[in-house]
Every structure is written in structure tokens, then in C-alpha cells.
Amino acid sequence: MRFAAFWPRGITLDGAADHGVSEAIYLRDPDQNGVELYRDRPQDEWPRDAQGNLKMRNSHFDLQRLLDENP
Predict the structure, then answer these.
(1) Mean of the per-residue pLDDT values for the chain?
(2) In what order do the strands lie in the sheet with 22-28?
(3) Main-chain phi, psi angles of 20, to 5 degrees
(4) Measured between alpha carbons, how far is 13 from 35 in angstroms, rounded to an integer?
(5) 9 three-class SS
(6) CB count in 10 Å sphere of residue 14
(7) In degrees rounded to 5, what are phi and psi of residue 26?
(8) Residue 52 has pLDDT above 90, yes or no
(9) Which of 34, 39, 41, 69 is deepest in the core (most CB within 10 A)?
């Protein structure tokens, strides 16, 4: 099932975030349960500082790009 197929089923979007090491979408199902869908990025894409430590973030996630890539 493609991501866009959720919209007609009463699933509401609570938010979305790019954490650097992963991307997450936060949904609420028809019973109002909170659901998180996420994917981990490959480790070679994880943001790191000059010392090699992980540099996680809470940035805007381009949900429209996801929908456009997965109609």
C-alpha cells in the first residue's frame, strides 16, 4: 500500500520531522491512537560533527516530496 492511500481512510496527520538519522511521520488513526511511521537513513548519510559524533536534529520533513515520489 502506498503512503497516499492512508488519506481517504480517516487518518489524520499530526506532524512530520527529519531527525537526520531518520525521517518520521506522526499520524492519528480513526480511533485517535497516535502512530509513528519512520525510516532509518543508511549510516553513511547520518549527520556528524567534526569529531564524528552524531548530530541529530528536528527539522522540517518534506511530506509533499514523499507524496510526489509515491503517488
Answers:
(1) 85
(2) 12-18, 22-28, 34-40
(3) 85, -55
(4) 10
(5) helix
(6) 11
(7) -110, 120
(8) yes
(9) 41
Long-range contact set of residues 4-12: C-beta below 8 Å, sequence gap at least 24: 4/67, 4/70, 4/71
- What percentage of the chain has pLDDT greater than the value 90? 46
| Owner of C-alpha cell 547520518 | 46
Q: Residue 11: CB partners within 8 Å, gap ≥ 6?
A: 27, 28, 29, 30
Contact 7, 67 (CB under 8 A): no
What cell does 2 get? 502506498
Confidence label for 63 from pLDDT (cuts 50, 70 and 90): confident
CA distances from 59 to 13, 31, 33, 42 (A): 17, 28, 24, 18
